[in-house]
Amino acid sequence: DIQMTQSPSSLSASVGDRVTITCRASQDIRNELGWYQQKPGKAPKRLIYAASSLQTGVPSRFSGSGSGTDFTLTISSLQPEDFATYYCLQHNGYPRTFGQGTKVQIK
Amino acid sequence: QVQLQESGPGLVRPSGTLSLTCAVSGGSFSSTNWWSWVRQPPGKGLEWIGEIYHSGSTNCNPSLKSRITMSVDKSKNQFSLELSSVTAADTAVYYCARGYQVLLGYYGLDVWGQGTTVTVSS
Predict the structure, then answer these.
(1) How close is the nearest chain A Cα to the Cα of B122, in Å?
(2) How far apart are CA B71 and CA B60, in angstroms?
(3) How far is CA A7 from CA A11, A31, A47, B21, B36, in A?
(4) Are A58 and A70 in contact (CB under 8 A)?
(5) B37 and which of A56, B49, B78, B101 could share a cystine (Cβ 3.0–4.6 Å)?
(6) In this predicted model, what pLDDT tens digit does every residue of B31-55 receive, in sequence order?
(7) pLDDT in tens, A45-99
């Protein structure tokens, strides 16, 4: 299995802060990775696909980068509605695997 | 706009079989996409269960493979999951999702159902 190591597991930040979340794959997954946002009681919502492409309708303050084994999700200016848990998901190999999640909390 | 909706019993007895269905609306079920299942135990992260193509081809998580059966019903635009010999560890919110695939490649899970909670308890 491809292991996805996500960090940090949680972070506290203020509105307006720049936030960075990383995922590291245990092997080369090219750009076959997506980033998801999940709010309590809701289904995950995809923000980024193909590592760096913004899903239609997602605000431009979200961006993704990386290729191979190291990937980053950046929120350029954190907004109140961005407090949530974020996951990466690789689809380079089977089984598909998620990162452990990063909970973004209000400082 | 494709929409997915899970349905099935909210309570399953231990050692029984969990059965869920996902109805696909707003798009062609028999397209090039893969149809997936993901679950999330209470307070924990997401786990990929498996996926099925409209032809019936499947890919499953090896950790669950011996207990999983997936099927499609093209006449009803829906696909289903059965998980046998359930225990309390199978208690989770179960999501169905679309794995978007076009000629140029596969692009991951883009559309999700709202999820359905399944509790395994006697």
Answers:
(1) 25
(2) 12
(3) 9, 18, 18, 34, 26
(4) no
(5) B49
(6) 889 999 999 999 999 999 999 998 9
(7) 999 999 999 999 999 999 999 999 999 999 999 999 999 999 999 999 999 999 9
Amino acid, single-letter form, for residue A51: A
Q: What is the per-residue pLDDT across B54-105, written as a single tens digit (0 to 9) for each?
A: 899 999 999 999 999 999 999 999 999 999 999 999 999 999 999 998 887 8
User: Do A80 and A61 form a contact (C-beta atoms < 8 A)?
Assistant: no
Q: How far apart are CA A70 and CA B115, in angstroms?
A: 30
Amino acid at A42: K
Chain A interface, best mutation among B6, B34, B39, B46, by max A CB count within 10 A: B46
* Residue among A42, A96, A100 minimizing CB distance to B48: A96
Contacts of A87 in chain B (CB under 8 A): 45-46
Q: What is the 3-state secondary structure (H, E, C) of A5-47?
A: EEECCEEEECCCCCEEEEEEECCCCCCCEEEEEECCCCCCEEE
**Residues of chain B with C-beta less than 8 angstroms from the C-beta of A96:** 36, 48
The closest alpha carbon to A98, from A3, A1, A28, belongs to A3
